[in-house]
Amino acid sequence: MASETGAVPAPQSVEEFQERLRELGPSLPRRMRDCAGYLERNVDRIAVSTVAQLAEGAGVAPSAMMRFCQVLGFSGFSEMQRMFREAYSPGLPDYSTRLELLREEGRDSPSALLAEFIESGRSSLENLAGSIEPAALEAAVRVLTGAGVIHLAGLRRAFPVAAYLAYAFEKMQIPAMLHDQTGRLDHRHAMRAGDALLVVTFAPYTPETVAMAESAAAAGLPVVAITDRADGPFARPGILPLLVAEADFGAFRALSATLSLAIALAVSVGTRRNSA
Amino acid sequence: MASETGAVPAPQSVEEFQERLRELGPSLPRRMRDCAGYLERNVDRIAVSTVAQLAEGAGVAPSAMMRFCQVLGFSGFSEMQRMFREAYSPGLPDYSTRLELLREEGRDSPSALLAEFIESGRSSLENLAGSIEPAALEAAVRVLTGAGVIHLAGLRRAFPVAAYLAYAFEKMQIPAMLHDQTGRLDHRHAMRAGDALLVVTFAPYTPETVAMAESAAAAGLPVVAITDRADGPFARPGILPLLVAEADFGAFRALSATLSLAIALAVSVGTRRNSA
DNA sequence: CTCGAAATGGAATAAACATTCCATGCGGGA
DNA sequence: TCCCGCATGGAATGTTTATTCCATTTCGAG
């Protein structure tokens, strides 16, 4: 019985586990597929649940869940759970403890404030991971890769993002121009056919930035907009919105998610252009 | 037996739990103190361990660990563990699954790249939470709160941070000046007695920024430096370094931690100045 | 429609586990 | 020094949980 088809070697890590789930997902009988689906969507619960709880969540009998573990190559549920319990630490090992300690410095202390910004940054990042549309991102990269000069616009609190994009493009030797309104100079006529515009702006939108996006779109240039609302002034043809919901604390936000998105966009474009 | 001293109400959340641990830590018998100490340092393992495992880790008998749970106000270990297992979800519900999905778009896809930046951002934030010195932060806030004009310097990849600080201070109506080197104009003589300088720079340091910090320090102005290495040019009297280790992915970093620190600093200063 | 193989759910069994109880040890006060 | 009371560890117990087995159902091929 050693060389049977079912004698698979059993996943050694959470990554292998997820891979296995998806690779044999479709070829499985119905109840097994229910198990696979539920576990895939609730990997994080495996370490802290009983067979019965997971089975109920998946809508199957406990024995079905058991058999599923064995199909995956484990000797049983316990062995599988052991793997998850051991791999459990890296998540937030003493992260919340650290935050706790920072907060304890006092209600209005700088440390407590920092803890809040760290926390909102973290939740913004998680949110971004779940809400970004890979297809939209891919489309944006394609548009910018094909452009002659990439024009960058972003003012007020969006300015740091635009500035960082300008730095990154320059580093990668990609033609880009930052429209920073120095001297109130409006360089919109620097945008020529074949160029593209990348704007960054959040509600309430800065009029100058919106105007620039509209004039570019009217001229037929492709426009990519990093923004925070789907119903803003960028819901019109010719403009490709990339949504990022940044959690703010008080009147300010830490821009973690926005900058991550921006830099990923820039590096993708850079990689693709320089390898062509 | 309702009004006995030992009839404590039992913690309802992880925070309350930690608080309770610390408040009755010193007053406990030896073995109980061992339990408290070990649990405090391994809060994250409680949800995924058995009594026996925790007891062994703490170097006590299982029954001692049991009694400790009851001292805390729980009916037993199971009740305590239930609390931790339930409180466990909010952290990363399907966060790692989302990242996994993003990565699967393809090795060099924009989504996969974004996932990497999100991940390094998150780890930078966690790192910052653990490495920041509340005392140093407090000192920096005090220095900047007492200053006349706050001068801001940061070029190249540090420029977005300096720019965001300038935006935040302006919003809060705090006198600040961004030294952005437009027109190669060096405004260092705008720094007068009573002012302070806040610089942002990372290794390899931009010479202009370093020079500005040195000239300010030489003139006796207080200088706060947001930077990434303790052994840089800011290891000298008169300069207060705030260290932030930003994980970078490839040649770029997402600046999440740096910006969080910067904005926390700015808001702290703003709050304190405007309430005075 | 019929047969056979695979799948399924539920009940029975076995293992792991939490919890309690009690005998023993240890330290502090008289 | 002796005694009392609390603290402690280990064994016994009862409960929860995993696991296996088997009767029944479902599905697909002929």
Topology:
Two copies of one chain form a homodimer.
Chain A: H1 14-23, H2 30-41, H3 51-58, H4 62-71, H5 77-86, H6 95-103, H7 110-131, H8 134-145, E1 150-153, H9 159-171, E2 176-179, E3 196-200, H10 207-218, E4 223-227, E5 239-243, E6 248-249, E7 252-253, H11 256-275
Parallel strand pairs in A: 1-2, 1-3, 3-4, 4-5
Antiparallel strand pairs in A: 6-7
Helix pairs in contact in A: 2-3, 2-4, 3-4, 6-7, 7-11, 8-11, 9-11
The first copy, chain A, binds a DNA duplex (30 and 30 nucleotides) through residues 29-32, 50-52, 60-64, 66-67, 76-78.
Contiguous low-pLDDT stretches of chain A (5 residues minimum) are: 1-6
Mean pLDDT value of chain A: 84
Overall number of domains of chain A = 3
Largest two-chain interface: A-B, 80 and 77 residues
Helix count of chain A equals 11
Biggest β-sheet description of chain A: 5 strands, parallel
The spatial strand order of the largest sheet of chain A comes to 2-1-3-4-5
